[in-house]
Amino acid sequence: MKKLNLVMLLFASCLSAIAQNKTLSLDEYLAIIQQYHPVAKQAFLFNQKAKLNSQMALGGFDPKLSANKERKIYDGVTYYNYFTPEIKVPLWYGIDLKGSYTEYEGAFVSPENKVPKNGLSYVGLSLPIGRGLFIDDRRAALKQARIYQSVARNERQIILNDLFLDATQSYTEWLNAYQNTKVYTDAVKLALIRFEGTKQLFINGDKPAIDTLEALILLQNRQFKLNEYQQQLTNTKNALTAFLWLENNVAIDPEKININPDSLVFETPAPTQLLQTSPATIAQQNPEVQAYIFKLQELDIERRLKLEEIKPTLNFNLGVLNGGRDGFQNFNTPYINNNQKFGFSFSMPLTFTKQRAAYSLSKIKIQDATFTLNDKQNQIANKWRNYLNDYFTFTNQIALFEQTQANNKALLKGEETKFRFGDSSLFLINSREQKVLETQEKINELKAKKVKTIQVLKYLSNSF
Length: 464
Description:
The chain contains eleven helices and ten strands. The protein is α+β, with helices and mostly antiparallel strands and about 475 residues long. The protein folds into three domains: about 1-35, no CATH class; about 65-130 and about 315-345, no CATH class; about 155-175 and about 230-300 and about 360-460, Outer membrane efflux proteins (OEP) (Up-down Bundle). The strands form three sheets. A six-stranded antiparallel β-sheet has the order 2-3-4-5-9-10. The chain has a two-stranded parallel ribbon with strand order 1-8. A hairpin with a 5-residue loop joins strand 3 (about 75-90) and strand 4.
């Protein structure tokens, strides 16, 4: 309930941000996706499917009521008239608890079918001593249903992780375009001021016309670059809003929202615990790996079931007989010794050819799945190492480029000082300034790559 309230609070905060042109944080963005995106809702259907599968498996242990009624009258003579209701309660270990009542009368009833006038009740057990003692179809179905609950949760998480990864990549592209748009918006303002100043100096006769032309070309180049980033900003915003939905499966119209990304996302490092996780741990907890582990558990149940079939069928039936409808009225040793029904059934193939082949095939399936699991674990571990290396590389590169940027700004400031004393030119200032802009673009690009890498690390570690 607390989690739902948090989601609703975040969603309300997002609506406020949309209405008031405020910042949409990455956490708010993901919370809305989890609550309202159709794919996220679809993922949660796996839980309902798992519950229903468990319910179906439990149906194998439902008590069953049956009845058999038949009467034969010919030429006015009742040959036989019998009625036999029976209830059977499946128990664990393949045991069935049975209870029945028989009424049998008529002129031609076989001696072995005769019962007392008030009927004959029976309470007993059916015990599998051979095949079905350790596992049978109904117990296997229940065990598999329990595994399917874990499978369903895992499948749901895989779907959500895929959705969150795509969504966060889209958010990062949007943030990168937003940051670069801000950079060139300021650059265009500065170029416009410089152009107007240069033009006025030309009018006053203090500067040649070539300086005015150079300032104009610089302004036009930056306007073109700004236009490119504005186009990217619009496109990435449209891509982002494709992940945003309202209640009742209503998609958000990109034209009707006015929100900005959270710039702090570029400055947020990966959690320390995430970076310290070993590749072996990641290879074990990754949902795609877990899917193969659950598959192996299902195959092991199938193997045990096939092994059980390489046994003869030997079922014992033992019960107590009582006159009347109360089958529990006499339960003592002397009575049972004189009022009982006992029997057994036995069957087996002479070679078990089919059963042994099926068992061997089940073991091959396990081997095949194990090889696939090992390969998947190795792939995930290697991906983790590569993306972890990318993260530290991007971190170092960002630090290096930020130092370079500080130097570029110092050179620009120095060039502007020299220009005021007449020792430099507008061309050199523009060149220095262009280096600052290009370096800032590179820093934004590296920060975007770093954020994307963090999201992939979260994806691989199942920590969204």
